[in-house]
């Protein structure tokens, strides 16, 4: 390729001289190209990536070819038949550098062959042929595109990588018209081919480096041991996992024998495996014990293969190993847990069961056989035996309960139901289980135990019957006591009061007949009269306390108000009250119990509280009577509330309990005590026990 000679001072050349000159010039041209390629090769060899030195390579080629611009275009995508290309690398003479650099930096530097009217170029380049010539020789549409670039002539040579059209090597001239010779195009083909070879080689190197990097990353980050030893079993490579597994640094391990890390009691096994490898055998999934730096024994599964040279000489052993110590520990714990479970299952009297809700398989211990009198063959491996022997009335309730619990994701289930013995009678069982779910929160398993509580239920019935009899006895004792009090009160009122009245009248008759001068005798009779009056008052008070007539005549509310007034007069304690209930339907025994508990409460206030103010509230809500008594005394401790010597409090609770009520005694937050009685409006009838 020869640039036009525009030097008008040169003498005209003869044809022979011109021929010799062109031959010499062509030889110089070829030499420059070869030197440029040699220098380019050295640049590429010294570089890790071809992209970093390609612009320098283009400078060598551009100067050798003597063109204004050299560009490498890369095909980046294709839209239908249209191939999109972008300038990847460039070189230009000084006057074009700025413009070309600006073009390269533009985002729209990608161009479409079709949109720029260069479809003909695309079709030619795809076949491996170049596009070259002066722009005047190109179609008008192509000339318009080239003239914008001030191009006078162009040569575009396709670059193929791995048999695929990768891009193009472009040569442009803007300074003068130029004629591309066959030799020029052949040289440019060689350069483009050289670029294709370099790109393919560098891409392969990059892929290899990437593969090596991935391999190194996998080796370095692997949790499993990756290792290599020489033929004597000395470590020559270990990945970082070795430090974590063995507890040594890699430097402490490399060069040492594998046997140094195997317990001496297992050296024979390590030597055996090395011999097998040396004879060409592969080791697969073999368990070996190793000793860590902290002397803990670990278990590794080893895989190993021998490696040879091309001549068949053994060079080393390579393999992997997985630390299965946690798995072994888990297996051991599972075995121990299973052993404990079996021991418990054999030792307990309960019927322990394990129900697979997916397969409906059920395992039961021998407790079920002993408890219900069935053989293991009758029980079988499925849930049918349990369902068939559950009482028909209870079965639906139990299954519905389990279904609801599993739908809500609950874990615990329990129920009491009837279950048939082998002899046909029914036991009462208490059954409880734990529900296990999978990751999708689906119930998959239940584990639990059955207890035969028939005897317990029978004892509970006997206990309830006994308590009922005791309550009835206590009720009768209270009735007898009140009847005795009523009788004594009546005797005091009717008999003693009449006798005392007669004595008083007789004494008055005697006093009228004693002479006035008998002063001593008169004084004695006056004293006797006062004593009779005092005795009459005491008899009336005792009779009233034994059986408050007011309670029978006017009812509970009036009796409480009267008793509260009497209490205030005797003690000087202030009081307030809210006592107003409808006593219709309030049984006489209940009224008497409320009044007696009220009396005992006032007695305790006098004896222990040292209060100066009392509040009383009596209410009837629905079918329950509530009596509240509050004082501002010194209060009461929890210990005294339930002390065995607090007989008054015990008596109050027992009296209330006879009628199905209860007494709550509690200290107030600031000061004092509150006693609350809650008792049914009618005497409770305790239910019979089935």
Textual characterization of the structure:
With about 700 residues, this protein is α+β, with helices and mostly antiparallel strands. It has 5 domains: about 15-205, 2-Layer Sandwich (Beta-Lactamase); about 220-330, PAS domain (Beta-Lactamase, 2-Layer Sandwich), CATH 3.30.450; about 350-450, 2-Layer Sandwich (Beta-Lactamase), CATH 3.30.450; about 455-545; about 550-690, Heat Shock Protein 90 (2-Layer Sandwich), CATH 3.30.565. It is built from 21 helices and 21 strands. The protein has a 6-stranded antiparallel β-sheet with strand order 3-2-1-6-5-4, with helices on both faces. The chain has a 5-stranded antiparallel β-sheet with strand order 8-7-11-10-9, with helices on both faces. A 5-stranded antiparallel β-sheet has the order 13-12-16-15-14, sandwiched between helices. A hairpin with a 5-residue loop joins strand 20 and strand 21. Helix 1 packs antiparallel against helix 2, helix 1 (about 15-45) packs parallel to helix 6 (about 180-220) and helix 18 runs parallel beside helix 19 (about 590-610). The longest helix is centred in the last third of the chain and has 60 residues, at about 455-515. The protein is elongated and about 190 Å long. The N and C termini lie far apart (about 125 Å).
């Amino acid at each position: 390729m020869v640039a036009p000679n525009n030097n008008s001072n040169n003498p005209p050349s003869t044809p022979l001289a011109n021929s010799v000159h062109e031959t010499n010039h062509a030889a110089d041209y070829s030499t420059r190209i070869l030197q440029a390629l040699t220098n380019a090769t050295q640049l590429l060899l010294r570089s890790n990536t071809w992209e970093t030195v390609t612009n320098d390579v283009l400078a060598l080629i551009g100067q050798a070819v003597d063109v204004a611009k050299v560009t490498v275009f890369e095909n980046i995508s294709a839209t239908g038949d249209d191939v999109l290309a972008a300038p990847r690398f460039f070189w230009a003479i000084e006057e074009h550098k700025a413009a070309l650099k600006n073009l390269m930096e533009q985002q729209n530097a990608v161009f479409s062959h079709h949109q720029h009217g260069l479809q003909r170029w695309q079709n030619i380049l795809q076949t491996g042929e170049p596009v070259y010539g002066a722009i005047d020789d190109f179609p008008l549409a192509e000339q318009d595109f080239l003239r914008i670039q001030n191009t006078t002539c162009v040569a575009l040579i396709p670059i193929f990588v791995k048999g695929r059209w990768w891009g193009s090597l472009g040569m442009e001239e803007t300074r003068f018209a130029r004629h591309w010779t066959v030799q020029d195009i052949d040289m440019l083909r060689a350069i483009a081919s050289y670029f294709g070879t370099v790109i393919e080689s560098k891409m392969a190197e990059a892929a290899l480096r990437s593969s090596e990097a991935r391999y190194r990353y996998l080796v370095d980050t692997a949790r499993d041991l990756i290792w290599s030893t020489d033929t004597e079993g000395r470590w020559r490579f270990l990945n970082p996992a070795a430090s974590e597994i063995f507890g040594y640094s890699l430097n402490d391990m490399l060069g040492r024998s594998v046997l140094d890390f195997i317990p001496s009691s297992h050296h024979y096994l390590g030597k055996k495996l090395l011999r097998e490898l040396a004879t060409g055998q592969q080791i697969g999934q073999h368990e070996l014990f190793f000793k860590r730096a902290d002397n803990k024994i670990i278990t590794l599964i080893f895989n190993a293969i021998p490696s040879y040279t091309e001549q068949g000489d053994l060079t080393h052993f390579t393999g992997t190993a997985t630390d299965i110590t946690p798995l072994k520990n888990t297996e051991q714990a599972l075995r121990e847990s299973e052993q404990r479970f079996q021991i418990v299952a054999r030792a307990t009297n309960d019927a322990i069961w394990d129900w697979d809700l997916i397969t409906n398989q059920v395992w039961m211990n021998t407790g079920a056989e002993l408890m219900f009198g069935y053989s293991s063959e009758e029980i079988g491996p499925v849930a049918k035996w349990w369902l068939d022997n559950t009482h028909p009335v209870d079965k639906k309730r139990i299954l519905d309960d389990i279904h609801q619990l599993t739908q809500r994701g609950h874990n615990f289930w329990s129920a009491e139901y009837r279950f048939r013995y082998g002899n046909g009678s029914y036991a009462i069982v208490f059954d409880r289980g734990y529900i296990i779910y999978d990751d999708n929160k689906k119930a998959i398993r239940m584990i639990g135990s059955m207890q035969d509580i028939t005897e317990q239920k029978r004892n509970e019935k006997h206990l309830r019957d006994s308590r009922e009899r005791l309550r009835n006895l206590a009720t009768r004792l209270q009735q007898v006591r009140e009847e005795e009090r009523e009788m004594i009160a009546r005797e005091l009122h009717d008999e003693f009061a009449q006798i005392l009245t007669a004595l008083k009248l007789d004494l008055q008759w005697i006093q009228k007949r004693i002479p006035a001068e008998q002063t001593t005798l008169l004084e004695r009779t006056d004293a006797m009269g006062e004593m009779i009056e005092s005795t009459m008052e005491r008899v009336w008070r005792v009779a009233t306390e034994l059986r408050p007539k007011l309670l029978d005549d006017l009812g509970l509310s009036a009796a409480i108000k009267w008793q509260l007034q009497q209490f205030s007069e005797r003690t000087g304690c202030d009081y307030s009250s809210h006592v107003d209930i409808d006593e219709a339907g309030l049984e006489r025994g209940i009224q008497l119990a409320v009044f007696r508990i009220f009396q005992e409460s006032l007695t305790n206030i006098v004896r222990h509280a040292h209060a100066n103010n009392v509040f009383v509230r009596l209410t009837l809500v629905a079918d329950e009577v509530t009596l509240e008594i509050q004082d501002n005394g010194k209060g009461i401790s929890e210990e005294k509330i339930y002390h065995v010597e607090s007989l008054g409090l015990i008596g109050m609770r027992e009296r209330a309990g006879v009628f199905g009520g209860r007494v709550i005694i509690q200290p107030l937050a600031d000061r004092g005590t509150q006693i609350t009685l809650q008792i049914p409006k009618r005497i409770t009838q305790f239910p019979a026990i089935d």
